[in-house]
Amino acid sequence: MHNAGIEFVKSGSPCRSSAPAVLMTIQSSPMTSDVSTSQGVLPPAGFGVYESSAAGSSASFVHSEPDNEETELYSVSWNQDSSCFAAGTSRGFRIYNCDRFKETFRRDLKSGGFKIVEMLFRCNILALVGSKTNSQYPPNKVVIWDDHQSRCIGEFSFRSEVRAVKLRRDRVVIVVEHKIYVYNFMDLKLLHQIETLANPRGLCCLSHHLNTSVLACPGLRRGQVRVEHFGLNMTKFINAHDSQIASMTLTMDGLLLATASIRGTLIRIFNTMDGTRLQEVRRGVDRADIYSIALSPNVQWLAVSSDKGTVHIFSLRVRVVGEDPSTDCTAVKGSALYHQGSSNSLDGLISPNTGANPSSSLSFLKGVLPKYFSSEWSFAQFHLPECTQFMSAFASQNTVIIVGMDGSFYRCSFDPVNGGVMVQQEYIRFLKTETRPR
Fold first, then answer.
1. Domains identified in the chain and CATH numbers
2. Residues of the chain whose pLDDT is less than 70?
3. According to the UniProt entry, where is the signal peptide (predicted)?
4. What is the reported pLDDT for 319?
5. What is the Cβ-side half-sphere exposure of residue 5, based on CA atoms within 13 angstroms?
């Protein structure tokens, strides 16, 4: 085995994209045969699935060693359906399965770790960005790694630090502080460049249905979200908040957007077709740093984690489009809503208010009292240590999974009728570290 970390296959002269700030190198054989079919979708053959340990399959990584106190956790990120999460560490990266929880495999390096590890569902394609301590791959370089073939299949270098990478089956999206680059996964050709307000958090989210191609990111004004409907060749600007955006997420079909600002008190749900605000819920009154926003697959629930040490669950009044976001049936329904979006009627997106989220008993005085007295408050809650950054997501029905930057994993459930304090079902310490995120 090689002991120098990732070792790429040398190829001919690099292919330069049309973006002046980007150098793209396609490694070894052409990308068309390695990454996608002629339709721009990953082929099923030759792409492994992260189900079991694959130790020793990559000749470019060193043998894994037992955990020691020197291992630091740099990042955690869910895959697109939250069935797995990736952990970037000071030694490489690890992939964990959420149901049932287990470490499926890890890759360790001699040259340093990765600050960004982005999965593509459960397949073997990963986007990797090195940490500042990585002597071989700096934070301004993105590596597209095929773990099945144990080699790099694409590489992007930028003049500034990469803040985030997002993957679809047909797109690679790379975020730097003031710009977002969108590439075709088939041949890594640059398709779009999007200017943004300063974006140190790397905020960007994508839809993941094959027949809807939606991207949401900060606009050029404070509190503004830019939504690109690539399939419709349409751009929509949504003035979501008065303060800067702190967190955002899209539904799998890209039709709904949830946002929070740096104030961290309100979370708002928007129709991405016309920018209409569909619902507003309140996390609290005091300012908070929102770490994550998650929407359940059936768009019935919303989860928010913050530095206050609480994961809040809210009941949504948005009409359910489909139960399973991975099915073609749901995707077709989502596409149908696209074409209905040109009308002013919101009947297709809003269901009757069930009153599940508690409101203030003084809400009848909302014209006199401050606005928060008439707000919709959280339906269920789960309490966590305040000193740690946690990311939440939805698992099976009425279950929430939470990953912390202290190396902890929680699974908890909530009562869909009565709400209240959630019940902890599982706790695992998957990494022995007390390191805070850098």
1. 1-168 (no CATH), 196-438 (2.40.128.630)
2. 1-70, 319-375, 433-438
3. none
4. 59
5. 17
Query: Two tokens at 84?
Result: 């797995």
> What distance in Å separates the CA atoms of residue 171 and residue 362, rounded to the nearest whole number?
49
Q: What is the pLDDT of residue 65?
A: 52
Burial (Cβ within 10 Å: 0-12, 13-18, ≥19) of residue 388: middle
Question: d(Cα 267, Cα 278) in Å, to the nearest integer?
Answer: 11
Beta bridge partners of 171: 184
Nearest to 119 by CA among 47, 191, 23: 47
Contact between 348 and 419 under an 8 Å Cβ cutoff? The reply is no
Among 290, 297, 259, 250, which residue's Cα sits nearest to residue 277?
A: 259
Phi-psi region of 417 (alpha: psi -120 to 50; beta: other; left: phi over 0): alpha
Contact 147, 47 (CB under 8 A): no
Cα(178)–Cα(145) distance, integer angstroms: 25
The predicted structure's pLDDT at residue 318: 73
